[in-house]
Design goal:
alpha+beta, 503 residues, five-stranded antiparallel beta sheet
């Protein structure tokens, strides 16, 4: 009998034993029929992790392999266990209470009470013991409602964020897998598959960094440092992964009334960004005494975030987002960019397109040729849009009620990410929790007239960025909103002498 290991990648298994591919596919890994998927995700996906992510019982895997002449080194004793015995012992006994029922509210009261005890500094072991008395399982939805309830009781997002990992540890393995992905959601390029594939790539890169770092700290070999920095630069693409959550997924969650979890998760995202920058700086300066602890913390937090995304975030949204939501997220994902690996193909769902009549098309064309009249001239909407998009500034307008109404788009990468999901969104929800006091104070000053404008400047992304906020007022002085404009002023600073002729 041929022996394999759970640590083998799918790619290596198939390369060594081509016949095993059909066995793996038969267990629910249909995408692996694609050679592109095998050569991308298959290269970084260990079969053990793949089983866990697709919730394939190890016993079923062992049984299927045994029928085809394979055994699993780590599970050699599992083959003797009857499948019904294994699954019976693992079955969760915690149920999901119906929303609005007395049982649901009772569970919420107990959950909130337990978390509040942790926030007051009560012993973790004692709180966990009480948790186990009341619960055998909680759903991601219950966690979402619980966080929303805590914020309603005056606990702010930063406080919840500070103990986020403690909360996750309290629930431990009790978060119930109460969602399944549809066949459409399993297609290459679907945002769910993109998120999971990128999480695999992040885990793989963290492992490579960890092994390289161990050797480098022992040998101090300069060539190893070059390799570390290349892997670290690759890991740095996690920022795009997080940005897609924050700018493409969170706005839809907020529109559905799920506001607390996005604020908490965004705060943790920013903490991870800060930890990454700290580790990058320490590595650059060879701060050998500090590097191990900071990297260990970074690896832990990034790994925990993967768990939160796949065990909490996805179950929260998978049943309330419709296909149009996922299409919007897919479109905005292309604008923001991908992390480490790119989708092997663009996701195009099978759906019927509405038939648009020629009369409708002509009518829309007619609307676009009408003029908007200004005191100093007139433009068509198309001309106006093109003109605003050609101004070398990032423009955003927020109305008097703090709702984002407009941003321009010249097709270039923005300093401050903007997607179409921002339109109609409360501007306070477009910022991470730590920025809210500054944004709230600024808007209050502009609205009241205490200030007419405010500017900030700083270096980032290799540029010198100037950000200006200006109050927009009507003829009678009433506040209409705030205009933000952002530009890279380094090219202006670098100007020297005079230029009075054409190039």
């Amino acid at each position: 009998m041929k022996e394999i290991s759970l640590n083998d990648t799918v790619y290596n298994l198939v390369k060594q034993y081509p016949e095993i591919r059909e066995v793996i596919i038969s267990l629910g890994f249909e995408p692996l029929r694609s050679d592109k998927m095998l050569n991308t995700a298959g290269r970084i996906m260990a079969i053990g992790k793949a089983l866990k992510r697709n919730e394939v019982p190890e016993e079923a895997f062992v049984e299927a392999l045994a029928k085809n002449g394979f055994s699993v080194k780590e599970l050699a004793s599992s083959a003797a266990v009857a499948p019904n015995e294994a699954t019976a012992s693992a079955a969760p006994s915690g149920g999901i209470a119906r929303m609005g029922s007395t049982e649901f509210q009772e569970r919420q009261d107990i959950l909130q009470s337990l978390i509040l005890r942790l926030h007051r500094g009560e012993d973790w072991d004692a709180v966990q013991a009480d948790f186990k008395k009341h619960f055998t399982g909680v759903s991601a939805y219950e966690i979402s409602v619980m966080e929303q309830g805590l914020m309603g009781k005056g606990i702010d997002a930063e406080d919840i964020q500070r103990l986020c990992n403690v909360h996750a540890s309290l629930f431990g393995g009790s978060i119930e897998a109460v969602y399944t992905t549809s066949a459409e959601q399993q297609n290459a390029g679907h945002p769910i598959q993109v998120m999971k594939l990128e999480n695999l790539a992040i885990e793989n890169t963290l492992e490579k960094l960890s092994k390289l770092l161990d050797v480098y700290l022992e040998t101090k070999e300069p060539s190893l440092k070059d390799g570390l920095q290349k892997q670290l630069a690759l890991l740095g693409e996690f920022d795009k992964h997080y940005a897609r959550k924050e700018y493409a997924i969170f706005p839809i969650m907020e529109n559905k009334g799920i506001t607390a979890p996005p604020k908490v998760m965004w705060g943790v995202d920013d903490d991870i960004r800060a930890m990454y920058k700290e580790f990058k700086s320490l590595l650059q300066n060879d701060a050998f005494d500090e590097i191990p602890k900071v990297f260990s913390d970074l690896k832990y937090e990034m790994t925990e975030m993967i768990t939160k995304e796949e065990d909490i975030l996805l179950p929260m949204i998978i049943d309330i987002f419709n296909e149009d939501h996922w299409l919007q997220i897919a479109k905005e994902s292309e604008e923001i960019g991908y992390c480490i690996v790119k989708p092997e193909s663009k996701w195009i769902p099978e759906r019927s397109l509405p038939i648009v009549s020629r009369e409708t098309i002509e009518a829309e064309k007619g609307e676009n040729t009408s003029y908007i009249n200004f005191e100093t001239g007139h433009l068509t909407p198309h001309q106006l849009e093109k003109m605003l998009n050609n101004i070398p500034l990032e423009l955003t307008f927020v109305d008097a009620d703090n709702i984002v109404r407009y941003y321009n788009d010249n097709g270039e990468e923005k300093f401050f990410k903007r997607t179409s999901s921002a339109i109609g969104r409360d501007v306070l929800n477009c910022h991470p929790p730590k920025s809210l006091p500054i944004v709230t104070k600024l808007l209050a000053h502009l609205k009241s007239g205490a200030k007419e404008s405010e500017s900030m400047w700083f270096r980032a992304m290799g540029k010198f960025i100037l950000v200006t906020y200006r109050a927009v007022r009507d003829d009678d002085g009433s506040y209409m909103g705030t205009l933000e404009y952002v530009q890279d002023i380094q090219p202006i600073i670098d100007l020297d002498g005079e230029k009075r002729t054409l190039s």
